[in-house]
Design brief:
Layout lengths: L2 E10 L4 E3 H5 L6 H8 L3 E3 L6 H15 L9 E5 L11 H8 L7 E5 L5 H14 L5 E9 L17 E11 L4 E8 L7 E2 L11 H5 L6 E2 L1 H22 L9 E4 L4 H11 L10 H4 L6 H11 L8 E8 L3 E8 L9
Parallel strand pairs: 4-5, 4-6, 11-12
Antiparallel strand pairs: 1-7, 2-3, 6-7, 8-13, 9-10, 12-13
Length: 334
């Protein structure tokens, strides 16, 4: 039976950096407070690029690292909550065009917030293992600076811009072992971008009330995230008869260092197992996990066959976990 394997990983971040000291000049906050509460020191901001630009650059590199030509990609799926356009065209369609894939390729977006990359893995796995597609490019891309209110110190300190991409291909080794995804829409108001949709259409009042920006009830989200992320990992490990000791690297969504530390301790992961990038990127939503995965890959930690556990929680609420063996070449062999 054909299996699906993640055969390459790549990321892209824009050049401009917004530090905590920069934010001190914009809102009532401090570097010390931000680092203590979130672990974030800086985040990258796209000033001249849009979401499809970020995704295209990460996607192009992922295709190259997979040893493929762009023409060999059968489908592009992009996870984003900050698309180029509200309705259409999809960011994935624009990425396809940027990559020169203008005819005959399946391309669409999904919206699963910070869990987006886990959802992408599940979709790509199903497409490849069913035989419908052979090589699927999945991309988490976000320009969150476009939906952040830089007068709201509770949210503007958290988010950054960037993109991460991977190629999922048919293979009989180093496969994606398991993916679990879930949702609970009853508490969606706790983390929401209210405006510009059919609930609050674009008009002067909506803009005046700043409903086009991210709104978050931080304390409530924190508590739910820790409980849900922990439960999700326990379930997927038990389902696959594994323990934390069987995992080479735990790559959680990079939202807040306190959430990550709480989950890590409850699940008995060591510092060496846990991949952390929140300090230099902040929360990049759907791009968070592939960006962290790429950092660990480029510094030589993740190698062919490394067993990875991914875990995310995001607005919706959505959450999910995945266990996979890395199927790409070692970075020093590219």
């Amino acid at each position: 039976m054909t299996k699906a394997s993640l055969i390459s990983i790549a990321s892209y971040v824009p050049d401009d950096v917004l530090t905590n000291f920069d934010l001190e000049k914009m809102v009532e906050t401090s570097d010390e407070w931000i680092v203590k509460r979130t672990g974030i020191k800086e985040r990258h901001i796209a000033t001249s690029e849009i979401t499809s630009d970020l995704g295209s650059k990460a996607g192009r590199l992922a295709i190259s690292r997979a040893g493929l030509q762009a023409s060999q990609i059968d489908a592009i799926i992009c996870a984003t909550i900050s698309p180029d356009h509200l309705c259409m065209p999809s960011t994935a369609c624009k990425i396809a065009s940027n990559l020169g894939l203008n005819f005959g390729i399946t391309a669409f977006d999904i919206s699963a917030a910070c869990t987006g990359f886990i959802y992408l893995l599940e979709l790509a796995k199903a497409l490849v293992e069913s035989g419908a597609k052979k090589n699927v490019l999945i991309i988490g891309a976000e320009k969150l600076s476009s939906i952040v209110n830089y007068e709201d110190r509770g949210t503007c300190i958290l988010f950054g811009d960037g993109a991460g991409a991977a190629v999922i291909s048919a293979s009989n080794e180093n496969e994606i072992l398991d993916v679990h995804t879930a949702s609970d829409g009853t508490q969606g108001e706790l983390l929401i971008t209210p405006g510009c949709g059919s609930a609050y259409p674009a008009n002067e009042k909506m803009l005046h009330d700043k409903l086009n920006f991210i709104h978050m009830a931080g304390n409530e989200v924190f508590k739910i995230a820790v409980q849900t992320l922990t439960k999700s990992v326990i379930e997927i490990l038990e389902h696959n008869n594994l323990t934390s000791q069987d995992i080479d690297f735990f790559i959680p969504h990079q939202a807040n260092i306190r959430i990550i530390e709480a989950v890590k301790q409850r699940l008995d992961f060591s510092d060496e197992q846990c991949v952390l990038t929140v300090a230099k990127y902040g929360n990049t939503s759907s791009a968070s996990i592939p960006m962290a995965l790429n950092d660990a890959y480029e510094d030589g930690r993740i190698k062919t066959g490394s067993v990875l556990l991914l875990d995310a929680f995001g607005g919706g609420f959505t959450w999910g976990s995945a266990i996979l063996k890395f199927g790409g070449k070692n970075f020093n062999e590219l």
